[in-house]
Each structure stands twice: as structure tokens, then as C-alpha cells.
């Protein structure tokens, strides 16, 4: 079985180049999957030296230590990442590889998107459902997430359709939030390891504030929906829009607040609006990424 196979793994030598694989799955990783992954690594001339579970009880979030007898050049890393991506996609598992180093071990901030990452819904679509404009708003959401429409424009269009809808629908959305399977365990595990956690969302503060408290996160940033004196949405937002560049800027602001470099940050997101944030972090993970 996998446990006996891991026990037999060789120790990394001083002449080998170490790497770390991080695996994230919505369900427990099976022994069959892990054995197939180890075989793929061996076929790529990478040896596995250890496996650690980062989530509680089940193997949903796993870290694997691997090494090569020689440093991989940029093209080899690209090819291997492509192979890992295809393998992970076939098994509905997100896989990331990075060089092992003291700096990697010093990563102490994880920044996450909210919609379709921490939670399974797109909040603005849920608000639109109660406002009776779900299909119109969802179509714009899909275009924005895929990158075919400017985020600022798409947000303003969607928010304008909520005009006159009662702000009390926030509570209905909160009551029906569905967290991504395993995310609560992941956040607890990261907190135990000493990480600071943040959610930076193109959604809305009423929801991110709730999610921050529910998951014991340290920071939350999002857009603010304007509410009129009548208790209804005005169809506008207040303050700067949390778009792609704003997300990356907020990541750097938090890192500065925590006195760490961007290389020590992990970012997780799923859409085009997350790409600059993922690129700014030392490790960017595209979670259930949009095509």
C-alpha cells in the first residue's frame, strides 16, 4: 500500500535538486492515485522522498518531497508542469511544483479568491437570483471570468441590474453559502502551521466579512455595494473596485504589513481577475481554473 511504499522512499542526497509538489483535491486522494503519481514522477527521473498530509483526517491536501539528480532547466520544468497539469486534471486534482528552499519554507501568507474558490457560488449571481435577473447577470459573469470582458465594466453592468433589490438578500445569500469541500480543514491546517490567511475578492464585503469570521482568516478585501436610505441597493458600488490589479496591489500591501516579501506568499484563484495576483505571489495556484 501507499504507506509502506512511502516508508521505503530514499533520503535526498546533497547532490540532488529538491522540489515540492502540493496536491489539492475536493475528495480524499486514493492510494491508487498516489501510486500512479509516484510512477509518473519516477518516469520523469524524479524520486519521491516524503509525503505529508496538510489537511485533517483525510488526504485532501498533500505535500510531496521529490528530487532530481540534476537541476531541471526552464523547458524541462514547463514540460513536467504540463504533464502534471494533465494528470491532475484527469483526476480532478490541482497540482503545483516548486523548488524546495529555505525561502519556500518561510512562506507565511496565503491569499485566496472567494467566489468559486473558497465557496462554490458566485455571490453576484446569487444576489441576481433574488433580484430576478439571474440569467442576464450570469452571462456577464461568465464573460468576465473568462477574460472576454473588462472586469470593471462587467461589475458595473451587473451591479446596476441589482438596483431596487433589498439589501436584506445578503442574509439569504449568507444562509445558503456552500463552502468548497475541504476548505475549512485546509484553513485550519494552515493556521496551525502559522500562516496568515487573507481573502481578496471581486465580490462584496458583506460576504467576505462573514467568510473571514467563519474560516478564521486574518484579512478580507472586496467591493462595497451601495445601499440607499430605503434599504435597497442603489445599483452602484462605493470606493475603489477590487479588480485584477487591485488584487495584486492588496497582496503586496498585506505582505508589507506582515513584513514579508512577495516570494513568501501563496495565492489561490480561479479566474482571469486573479491572474496578476497569482503572478505576483511566490507561488500561484489556479484552483478549478476557468479556460
UniProtKB/TrEMBL annotation:
Pfam families: Hydrolase. Keywords: Amino-acid biosynthesis, Hydrolase, Magnesium, Metal-binding, Serine biosynthesis. It is an enzyme of class 3 (hydrolase). InterPro entries: HAD-like_SerB (IPR050582), HAD-like_sf (IPR036412), HAD_sf (IPR023214), PSP (IPR004469). GO terms for cellular component: cytoplasm. The active site is at 113 (nucleophile), 115 (proton donor). The keyword Amino-acid biosynthesis applies. Gene3D superfamilies: HAD superfamily/HAD-like. Its cofactor is Mg(2+). GO terms for biological process: L-serine biosynthetic process. Pathway: Amino-acid biosynthesis; L-serine biosynthesis; L-serine from 3-phospho-D-glycerate: step 3/3. Its EC number is 3.1.3.3. One of its GO terms (molecular function) is magnesium ion binding. Transmembrane segments: none annotated. Belongs to the HAD-like hydrolase superfamily. SerB family. NCBIfam families: HAD-SF-IB (TIGR01488), serB (TIGR00338). This is phosphoserine phosphatase. It comes from Timspurckia oligopyrenoides.
Amino acid at each position: 500500500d501507499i504507506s509502506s511504499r512511502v516508508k521505503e522512499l530514499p533520503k535526498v542526497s546533497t547532490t540532488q535538486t529538491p522540489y515540492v509538489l502540493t496536491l489539492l483535491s475536493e475528495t480524499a486522494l486514493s492510494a491508487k492515485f498516489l501510486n500512479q503519481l509516484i510512477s509518473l514522477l519516477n518516469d520523469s527521473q524524479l524520486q519521491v522522498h516524503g509525503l505529508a498530509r496538510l489537511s485533517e483526517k483525510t488526504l485532501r491536501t498533500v505535500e510531496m518531497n521529490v528530487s532530481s539528480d540534476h537541476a531541471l532547466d526552464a523547458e524541462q520544468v514547463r514540460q513536467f508542469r504540463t504533464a502534471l497539469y494533465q494528470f491532475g486534471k484527469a483526476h480532478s486534482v490541482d497540482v503545483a511544483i516548486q523548488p524546495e528552499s529555505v525561502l519556500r519554507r518561510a512562506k507565511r501568507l496565503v491569499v485566496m479568491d472567494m467566489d468559486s474558490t473558497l465557496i462554490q457560488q458566485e455571490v453576484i449571481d446569487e444576489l441576481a437570483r433574488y433580484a430576478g435577473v439571474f440569467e442576464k447577470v450570469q452571462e456577464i459573469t461568465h464573460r468576465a471570468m473568462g477574460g472576454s470582458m473588462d472586469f470593471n465594466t462587467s461589475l458595473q453592468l451587473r451591479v446596476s441590474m441589482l438596483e431596487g433589490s433589498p439589501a436584506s438578500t445578503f442574509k439569504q445569500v449568507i444562509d445558503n453559502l456552500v463552502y468548497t469541500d475541504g476548505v475549512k480543514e485546509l484553513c485550519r491546517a494552515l493556521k496551525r502551521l502559522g500562516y496568515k490567511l487573507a481573502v481578496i475578492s471581486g465580490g462584496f464585503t458583506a460576504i467576505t466579512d462573514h467568510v473571514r469570521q467563519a474560516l478564521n482568516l486574518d484579512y478580507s478585501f472586496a467591493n462595497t455595494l451601495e445601499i440607499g436610505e430605503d434599504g435597497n441597493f442603489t445599483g452602484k458600488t462605493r470606493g475603489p473596485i477590487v479588480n485584477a490589479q487591485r488584487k495584486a496591489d492588496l497582496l503586496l500591501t498585506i505582505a508589507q504589513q506582515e513584513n514579508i516579501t512577495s516570494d513568501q506568499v501563496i495565492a489561490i484563484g480561479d479566474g482571469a481577475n486573479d491572474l496578476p495576483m497569482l503572478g505576483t505571489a511566490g507561488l500561484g495556484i489556479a484552483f478549478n481554473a476557468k479556460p
